Amino acid sequence: MNSLRPDETVVRGMPFPYDLPTTGDKLLSRISIILPAKNEAAALQDLLPRLKAIQPEAEIIVVDDGSTDQTSALCAKLGVFCLSSPYSMGNGAAIKRGTRAATGEILVFMDGDGQHDPADIDRLVERLEQGYDMVVGARDWESQAGLGRGLANTFYNWLASRMTGQTVSDLTSGFRVTRASRFREFLHLLPNGFSYPTTSTMAFFRSAYGVAYEPIRAADRIGKSHIKPLKDGVRFLLIIFKIATLYSPLKLFLPVSGLFFALGCINYAWTFTHGGRLTNGSTLMWSAAVIVFLIGLVSEQITALTYRRDD
To answer: In the chain, what is the greatest distance between 2 CA atoms, to the nearest angstrom?
Structure first.
């Protein structure tokens, strides 16, 4: 019996590494469609046949993130490659594993819950071929999963637009098309959780890679969402800080530093006017201003090193 290395992926129902049809040295498929899925058999049963019909030459990879339903069996039945893990590692981890296994020049990321329409793939790929490095399917307001999610995404889009100086129409969309060579540059930055769209978008902007947005309509998901409002609310709050630190940390730390400095000055003006003295409060706020500024300066240098390419 052949033993697997700890870093090798188990593929249920399919041999791995698998052989793709080739003509000479050129792959017949230049598009790889990656679908992270956790207990999404009900949605995949309808989605996978539609994908195969609309993109017959594309490589389709379902990344089974520790599902307990019939996801892997369904993929084997439909003849779709399925990368399975023995336990859930997270949506971002599934994206990274699927990207490593993909062989296409263009990567298409779609949610496995049936929200994204396979008919939109060609439209996004066409925009990519106009010279962009990533094209994101931008959802309209009616496609948002509830009022709270819609307001949160609107705020994220506004903040990312302010940070980058570019119009960000949908920062958190999981439907995107990208050049494989570009996306693989940032695999080490992607988290294992749900915020891989935010991280990849900001990384592309930071590296001066072209990002475009194509309007799409997202359907209601099939099955129950894996997002927990209370637990993931804190996680989404952290996305705000990640947006800044991934692009330009000083744009976050400098205003905070300025606020502490201004508060220290205001406090000193008040205490000097009414008591003719300098209090510890003003000194602490000025010290905080200097510390926050220095942290931002160091973070800026770390960010620059993170995106440095060693070709």
So the answer is: 86
For 13, how many CA atoms within 13 A lie in the half-sphere containing its CB?
A: 19
Instruction: Answer whether 54's CB lies under 8 Å from 66's CB.
Output: no
**C-beta separation of 259 from 252 below 8 A:** no
- The model's pTM is 0.75
> Could you tell me if 63 and 37 are in contact, meaning their C-beta atoms sit under 8 angstroms apart?
yes
Cβ of 168: how many Cβ atoms within 10 Å? 24
**Which among 209, 170, 194, 176 is positioned nearest to 307, based on CA atoms?**
209
C-beta of residue 137 within 8 angstroms of C-beta of residue 170: yes
What sign has the CA pseudo-torsion 104, 84, 12, 53?
Answer: negative
Instruction: Judge contact between 89 and 96, C-beta under 8 A.
Output: no
- CA-based nearest residue to 181, from 136, 137, 244, 128: 128
- Over its length of 311 residues, how does the chain's per-residue pLDDT go in tens digits? 333 333 434 444 443 344 444 433 444 348 999 999 998 898 999 999 999 999 999 999 999 998 888 899 999 999 999 999 888 898 999 999 999 999 999 999 999 888 899 999 999 999 999 999 999 999 876 656 556 677 777 888 888 888 888 889 888 898 999 999 999 999 988 888 778 898 899 889 988 899 999 999 877 656 555 455 455 556 666 776 777 777 778 888 899 999 999 999 999 999 988 888 888 999 999 999 999 999 988 888 887 777 666 55
DSSP state of 60: E
Instruction: Give me the residue label for tokens 């302010």.
Output: 162
Residue (of 98, 117, 108, 79) closest to 37 by Cα position: 98
